[in-house]
Amino acid sequence: MSVRRFVHLVLEEFAPRRSNYTLRNIDMDRFFLPRPSPVPSAAAAADAVEYGSLPCPAMTFYPPSSSLSGNQNMEFFLLGGNHNMVVAADQSCRTVLYDPGEHAVRTMPALPYQVTLPATSVTVGDDLYILDVDDGGSFHGLIYEDGLNEDWRCCALPPPPLSDFEVDSYAVIGGTDIWLSTHDNGGIYCFDTVRHAWSTVATRWTLPFVGLAEYCHEHGLWFGLSHSTRDRRRSLVLSALDLDGGELPLLRSFPMEFTPPDALNLVSSDLVNLGSGKFCIARFFRTDEDHRDGEELFAVLTAVEVERCDDDEDDAGGGANGGGLRMLKHRSEMYKLTSEMMYWVL
């Protein structure tokens, strides 16, 4: 897998009459240092952060005007894989595809319903699958057809087997199967994108990640964010898992790449797989309302790299395929945002 250069940050921008959404391309090349040191401790990780300015917007999206307050919402999805393009959907269910590399847009099929935040989306091959659990488990795919039209079509798919399905984590397995895990019902369910059929993978254990876990070819493991057992706050840390084995897999967790000061409260975390064992970890923090400047929102993006090492140098608590793994922290950068804005990391 080639190394992906840009992480896309979409921000809701407030305006007196109509909100809009701006997409900014964060160049991750400048985050990776020639040869950083492994993360030795949480204290050292907390010190290594720089304050930066966001790049200018590369694209602006305007939702249709509406007389109803709060009815100008949009949702954004990453069409990943070999594409790394952004799908935008407005409140009228219309969609558009933006290609950051070509700085071009193309029309896409409309969705049959307005997507409710947050929705679960994942790319399999050239196709984008969207599951909206708040709409009764509505499940649709934007399926690419490479015949005469060479275009995507919207396809209704069978809903998950459980009516109250809440997705906690998910991953693509074997290039065709989507595994979705729910902690409430304690199981893993598989959607076969070839046969368009559901099956049960496990009922006694769940994927230990929060959100999407992605396969890393270099290490033969799935990487995602999971709750740490090393601190009382159960912070989300980079973790790896082998989902190809027949036995219950062993989770390998790495140290925190960034520990915020006490004044910042974690709101959310996202992981972006850049390829070749490189990742971007994006974390969003808020200050308390009684902070001297009122409530503020900050984003911290950190570049990390996972490499093989000797077992005695293993930071992940165990070897992988006969060798250990360790995480190298590169550069962290902090940005100040508007406190109430919505955001997407794609």
Automatic annotation (TrEMBL):
Signal peptide residues on this chain, from the entry's feature table: none
Origin superkingdom: Eukaryota
Alphabetical list of PANTHER family matching this protein: OS08G0165000 PROTEIN, OS12G0113100 PROTEIN-RELATED
Name by which UniProt lists this protein: Uncharacterized protein
Organism of this sequence: Oryza sativa subsp. indica
